[in-house]
Amino acid sequence: MSKMAMVLAIDLSVNHFSGGIPRALESCTELQYLNLSWNAFGGPIPASVANLQSLQSMDLSHNNLSGAIPVAFKEMKMLQHLNLSSNNLTGEVPKGGIFASLDSSEINGNIGLSGTWINLPPCSHSKHRQLSTSRKVIVPLVIGIAIFIMSILLLAFSYRWRHANILSLEVGPPRILYEELLDATGGFSEENLLRIGSFGSVYKGILNNGTNIAVKVFNLHDEKAHQSFSRECNTLKRVRHRNVIKIISACSNLEFRGLILPYMSNGSLERWLYPCGGEECKLNFSDRLKIAKEIAEGMVYIHHHCFVQVIHCDLKPNNVLLGDDMTPYITDFGIAKLLFGNSMDSLTSTNAVKGSTGYIAPGINIFVFL
């Protein structure tokens, strides 16, 4: 782990790992998601875990962790989800930070914990000893059942992805109503129109809270636009990288499909490489090299390090947006392909030959004629 500084997610749940939580975790400085649940980790929780300031979700439930909860956890500004249930933790539950919004179910099963402010009873040591004995019998049984259930769920998940086209934004994005988008974009007025693409148009907008957004509105008269909307949602909700556009939310009803994305004030890379008219968009060699390097990092991530491999299929300057600090963001996953395991099914048909002339990957033609 000491050489995994750039890793974003670690999931070692439902295994038989034991011993203490590795202190080398603190070297994973970019870590956002950590799941060590349903193992046999013991000993105290290392206070150094609090140094992972990018961490957003941490699940240490169903282990044998002991000692007090590190008070430094309340200083983790990015942490939104914490589950410490079903361990042997003791002492007072800290106040403030993540603990202010902590639900009692996320720390239940720790008889040694106390905290009247979170509706926990005072510590009961005799009861704790009885529960500890019971857990030695119950925990292995529960783990076995959990592994069986997860196997069934994984099979169902795989079937769902291969045989259905279902939109599901599981990460719980903020809900933005169609009426809010109308108000934010001036009724999708022409003066707020940013660009027109193959499957719809993109408009600039400002939400009531002052957030600048870009709304990608899909043309529902085109059946391919429906597919593009679902494909972009299913792709972007799985991608977490600093050089890939982040989806804020999605809005969908019988007559409207729209993606809400961050507004990029510097427009597309194409505008800077090939300025039109009197635009003064200039990039020196150093800027170009930096942008190319970061785009490459984003592509390496979606090809090799994402939970599900993503093939963009249409990478070009017009599909790279530049933020306020000229950071590049890969966007427009409307014809992207998701690969499960080592499956190449989605790349071995003529239907896979998509993209813009002059930018389509040369290797695609190889797969077509296999």
From TrEMBL:
<feature type="transmembrane region" description="Helical">
    <location>
        <begin position="137"/>
        <end position="159"/>
    </location>
</feature>
<keyword id="KW-0808">Transferase</keyword>
<dbReference type="GO" id="GO:0004674">
    <property type="term" value="F:protein serine/threonine kinase activity"/>
</dbReference>
<keyword id="KW-0812">Transmembrane</keyword>
<dbReference type="InterPro" id="IPR001611">
    <property type="entry name" value="Leu-rich_rpt"/>
</dbReference>
<keyword id="KW-0433">Leucine-rich repeat</keyword>
<keyword id="KW-0677">Repeat</keyword>
<dbReference type="Pfam" id="PF13516">
    <property type="entry name" value="LRR_6"/>
</dbReference>
<keyword id="KW-0723">Serine/threonine-protein kinase</keyword>
<comment type="similarity">
    <text>Belongs to the RLP family.</text>
</comment>
<dbReference type="Pfam" id="PF13855">
    <property type="entry name" value="LRR_8"/>
</dbReference>
<keyword id="KW-0418">Kinase</keyword>
<dbReference type="InterPro" id="IPR051809">
    <property type="entry name" value="Plant_receptor-like_S/T_kinase"/>
</dbReference>
<dbReference type="Pfam" id="PF00069">
    <property type="entry name" value="Pkinase"/>
</dbReference>
<dbReference type="GO" id="GO:0016020">
    <property type="term" value="C:membrane"/>
</dbReference>
<keyword id="KW-0472">Membrane</keyword>
<dbReference type="InterPro" id="IPR008271">
    <property type="entry name" value="Ser/Thr_kinase_AS"/>
</dbReference>
<keyword id="KW-0067">ATP-binding</keyword>
<dbReference type="InterPro" id="IPR000719">
    <property type="entry name" value="Prot_kinase_dom"/>
</dbReference>
<dbReference type="GO" id="GO:0005524">
    <property type="term" value="F:ATP binding"/>
</dbReference>
<dbReference type="InterPro" id="IPR032675">
    <property type="entry name" value="LRR_dom_sf"/>
</dbReference>
<keyword id="KW-0547">Nucleotide-binding</keyword>
<feature type="domain" description="Protein kinase">
    <location>
        <begin position="188"/>
        <end position="370"/>
    </location>
</feature>
<keyword id="KW-1133">Transmembrane helix</keyword>
<protein>
    <recommendedName>
        <fullName>non-specific serine/threonine protein kinase</fullName>
        <ecNumber>2.7.11.1</ecNumber>
    </recommendedName>
</protein>
<dbReference type="InterPro" id="IPR011009">
    <property type="entry name" value="Kinase-like_dom_sf"/>
</dbReference>
<keyword id="KW-0325">Glycoprotein</keyword>
